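Page 42, continued from yesterday. The earlier attempt failed because a stray header line got pasted into the input along with the sequence. Redoing it now with the clean sequence only.
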Amino acid sequence: MDWFDAFDEVFASVERYVEIHGKPPAELAVSPALYEWLAELQRESNFLGGSPPSDPVVLETAYGIIPLVINEKLDPYEIIPL
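This time it went through. Structure tokens are written below.
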């Protein structure tokens, strides 16, 4: 994959899940590398916005808050709604 936009892919996976199942996933499994990348972006965003730093243990979506979990068996680009 030449270009991977993590945020687009994460939200697209939620949308696909909702289309198929009619409800949002209970959680999203991501690779350790993707989790860390998302955590770094959230820490940077919080810092720039004046909020305290935090890890992205949850993802805020149009369907509510969805927890992120690490699955060490996933490759860096995999996102699995559960």
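Notes: The chain is about 40% helix and 20% strand.
Reminder to self: strip header lines before submitting.
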